[in-house]
Amino acid sequence: MRFSKLTLRDLALDNKRVVLRLDLNVPIKDGKILNNTRLLGAVETIQYLLDKKCQIVILSHFDRVKSYDDITSGKKSLKLVADEFKKMFSNNKVVFVDDVHFAAVKKIIDNEKADIYVLENTRYYDVDHDSKEITKLESGKSPVLSQFYADLGDVFVNDAFGTSHRAHASNVGVAERLKDTAIGLLVEKELKALDYVSECKEGKKVMILGGSKASDKLKLIKEIINHVDALIIGGGMSYTFLKSQGKNIGLSLLEQDQISQCAEILNKYSDKIYLPVDHIVSDKFEDKPGRLVEDDVEDWGTGMALDIGPKTIQLFHRVLEDASIIIWNGPLGVFEMSNYSRGTFAILDKLVELTQNKNVYTLVGGGDSVSAVETRKVADKLSFVSTGGGATLTFLEKGNLPGIEVIRDKLS
């Protein structure tokens, strides 16, 4: 393993107060948590700390906070998450700290004897509560806020892989100010999985990239293309690549300013890159049956591609068939619409088949890809499902993450 970061098991934690960074950014609708996968992912680390008689101070962001109204509305609060933790850890005292003023938070933690303290959304500190101005104390890694977090505990543990590509006060700033730091058990698993797919030289390695924007992934493509044997590109991002080849794409998603970069990549690596050859097209962005359009048909009319077609599915399946490692990030169509979900689920089903029958190592990362996995309920049939989207891509692109790099190394 390239990373030799201290883990929970390397520290003397008995009776310590631990500042624990988690990623509790769960989907909520109408006052209900729609998916608690991220909460369940935190249980192993929390229970380990409880078994060591630790007091746990939990930090997490929730959604984006862009104004004071986002705070006063209550819609960006972690209260529902804290309530869920109270149910999950019913044998322990869990306190939700809804105040964000430094002195008040410190007083509650010092005086209310609890096992777990869930602090309010860290991004609330990006807005000044008096002036209501944007201050970005959290996302700007404010030294004052970082020190405040550090003063809340003896040890810092980062178990929020999904936010480790960001250098914020609640992950990097606090870690810089505490002597004892470690990665959590979830982050350890993430790093081992990503290390494996990055470092393994045996067999054929294939990466599948989907999603909407090519611009989000061009840096990654340039970095990783020399480390994979094949790169499958689908989803909305593929149409900027197709346009760069002079293909007709109708009204499909296009990033005009990225065409030259896409053309450059295709010219250099045409033997490795596979693009859609047929498409399911609709004149409107709605969940109604579309029509099949071949790649070489000139007139798309007002159609936009919302999914890959059957020939593309066959092509992509052939590329995957003899792979040893497959990394997938991003859907291949608008899979949330049932009429345009076939491509994404056909690829997912193929990954499951190869994992189960051929012992292929399959790693899926990225919010929408993971949503597809959860919809199919096949997470346990894949090798590893990452909790990171941007973090996974950044790791594959750069080989490290700010929130991990700041953690102390094991002594060699």
From TrEMBL:
Record has Nuclease as a keyword: no
Pathway the protein acts in: Carbohydrate degradation; glycolysis; pyruvate from D-glyceraldehyde 3-phosphate: step 2/5
Catalytic activity: (2R)-3-phosphoglycerate + ATP = (2R)-3-phospho-glyceroyl phosphate + ADP
Localization: Cytoplasm
InterPro entries linked: Phosphoglycerate_kinase, Phosphoglycerate_kinase_CS, Phosphoglycerate_kinase_N, Phosphoglycerate_kinase_sf
Binding site for ATP: K217, E336, G366, G367, D368, S369
Any Gene Ontology biological process: glycolytic process
HAMAP family, per the entry: Phosphoglyc_kinase (MF_00145)
Description of how the protein assembles with itself and partners: Monomer.
One cellular component (GO) term of this entry: cytosol
Alphabetized PROSITE patterns for the sequence: PGLYCERATE_KINASE
Keywords: ATP-binding, Cytoplasm, Glycolysis, Kinase, Nucleotide-binding, Transferase
Gene3D superfamilies, alphabetized: Phosphoglycerate kinase, N-terminal domain
Keyword Cytoplasm in annotation: yes
Binding site for (2R)-3-phosphoglycerate: R38, R123, R166
One Pfam family named in its UniProt record: PGK
Source organism phylogeny: Bacteria, Bacillati, Mycoplasmatota, Mollicutes, Mycoplasmataceae
SUPFAM superfamilies: Phosphoglycerate kinase
Family: Belongs to the phosphoglycerate kinase family.
Stated name of the protein: Phosphoglycerate kinase
EC number: 2.7.2.3
An annotated Gene Ontology molecular function: ATP binding
Residues that coordinate or bind substrate: D23, L24, N25, R38, H61, F62, D63, R64, R123, R166
